[in-house]
Amino acid sequence: MIVEALASAPARAVAVAELLASELVAAAVRHGSPRLAFAVHRQGDSARIEVAEQTAEVDKAAIAAIDPAPEEEWSTRILEALARRHGREMRSDGMMTWVEIDIR
User: Fold this and answer.
1) 53: helix, coil or strand?
2) 1.10.1140.10, 3.40.720.10, 3.30.565.10, 3.40.50.720: which CATH number matches 2-102?
């Protein structure tokens, strides 16, 4: 999916996108999410990668209180080093984590 979405991007940008996507998916799996949705959006010289953790009920207070495990701290460092921006958004069906990267 990433390779296709970023077909004309430099190989380094594709590799960074794949690494960051794997970090987002791994974090969602560690959270025990029963279903995931994955998307890649390209706009000009940037790409946005999204991983949505879809759950039947969202306990926003419980999610906000999650104490990051050591491996999540490493994931955050990787995101901060390689992404232009990154963040999390609470939605009615769960939490979406995203990164934006330069693909020049």
Assistant:
1) strand
2) 3.30.565.10
CA distances from 98 to 17, 21, 37, 58 (A): 11, 9, 12, 18
The CA distance from 81 to 6, in Å, is 20
At 13-69, the pLDDT tens digits run 999 999 999 999 998 888 777 789 999 999 999 999 999 988 766 565 665 565 555
Nearest to 73 by CA among 19, 38, 23, 34: 23
Strand residues in the chain grouped as ranges (E): 35-43, 46-54, 85-91, 94-102
DSSP state of 7: T
For the entire predicted model, the pTM comes to 0.82
Six-digit token pair at 3? Answer: 């390779």
Count CB-CB contacts under 10 A for residue 56: 8
| Amino acid type, 1 | M
